[in-house]
Amino acid sequence: MAELLKGKPVAEAMVSRMQATAAALKEKGIEPTVCIVRVGERKDDLSYEKGVLKRCAEVGVTARQLILPETVTQDALETAFRAVNDDPAVHGILLFRPLPKTLDAERIRAMLDPKKDIDGWTDGSLAGVFANTKTGFAPCTAQAVMELLHHYGIDPKGRRAVVIGRSLVIGRPVSMLLMHENATVTTCHTRTVDVPAIAKEADLLVCAAGVMKGVTEAYTNPDQIVVDVGIHWDEAKGGLSGDVDFDCVAPHVRAITPVPGGVGSITTCVLLDHVLTAAGA
Fold it and tell me: How many CB atoms within 10 Å of residue 157?
């Protein structure tokens, strides 16, 4: 059976480090602060918000909340958002998406200061990821993949990495982050011919296509490290599953992340790490 690359030890190590960082900032008179912007009462937003608030309290980051009704107008949203965006006491902004269909998220995205874009959403942040500069921040889940690899001592340098998926949330940014650490990266997508054959050659396989259990033993080799970024509700299982058919793949690879309990459990820590960096850490 493969080594399980669990996210909990990674998150615990990050929390310990971030607590010290937050304390050091406060000694300098800086109160690291994130503002959560939520429109409406979507259950998934409320669940994520609860997790972020809990983690903020644990780390020592001040959390503000800007809660607007689902009926809010575009002008009212932009006015409220601009006030937060322009507030020097707010170091990071987390806007829950998608917004209601009556609102234009692209206009908000264009307004957001990349220095406060802790979720890696703006063009400025994405440009920073691709150019490997300090502009903005990488998308949290993409960075969480890297945090997991670093924690377990998995150096991408010289490895053949295959990323299945090319979204701007995971696929493309994690490909760039791996390349910046000197992996040789192949990005597969819906038009790629014979993905299993390509994936089978990988030393490191990152699965982010958004297809439940789409990755099977045919994609793998015995020396491979598999990072599963997918998360889906599995009716048959009565729980969560990833992009990888875990039961099929785990006996045939060297190491693998579980779902749940893998990359997803690190993302909130990355979010707050970005807040601390924006605050001056």
Answer: 9
